[in-house]
Amino acid sequence: MSLLEVDDLSVAFGPRRVVDGVSFTLDRGETLALVGESGSGKSLTALSILQLLPAGGTNPTGRITLAGESLIGAPQPTLLHARGQLAGIVFQEPMTSLNPLHRIGRQVAEAVWLHRKMPKDALRARVIEVLAQAGFADARQRLDAFPHQLSGGQRQRVVIAMALANDPALLIADEPTTALDVTIQARILGLLADLKAARGLALMLISHDLEVVRRYADRVCVMKDGVVVEAGQVAEVFAHPAHPYTRMLLAAVPKGAPARLPNATPPLVEAQDVRVHFPIRRGLLRRTIGHVRAVNGVSFTLHEGETLGLVGESGSGKSTLGFALLRLQHAEGRIVFAGQDLSQVNRRDLRRLRSSMQVVFQDPFGSLSPRMSVGDIVAEGLSVHEPSLTRAERNTRVAVELEEVGLPPEMMNRYPHEFSGGQRQRIAIARAMVLKPRFVVLDEPTSALDMSVQAQIVDLLRSLQERHGLGYLFISHDLKVVRALAHRLIVLRHGVVVEEGTAAKIFANPQQSYTRDLMAAAFKLAAPASEEEEAGDEIEVL
Amino acid sequence: MDARVAPVPTFQLSPMTRRRLAIFRQHRRGYVSFWIFMVLFGFCLFAEFVANDRPLLLMYEGRLFVPVLVNYSETDFGTEFLPTEADYADPDLLRDIHEKGWAIWPLIPYSYKTVMHDMTQPAPSAPSWKNLLGTDDQARDVLARVIYGFRLSVLFGFTLTAISSVIGIAAGAVQGFYGGLTDLLFQRFIEIWSGMPQLYLLIILGSIITPSFWVLLIFLLLFSWMNLTGVVRAEFLRGRNLDYVRAARALGVSDAAVMWRHILPNAMVATLTFLPFTLSGSVTILSTLDFLGFGLPPGSPSLGELVAQGKNNLQAPWLGITAFVVLGGTLTLLIFVGEAVRDAFDPRRAPRASKR
Question: FRET pair for A23, CA 20 to 30 Å: which of A214, A529, A535, B266?
Answer without folding.
Answer: A214
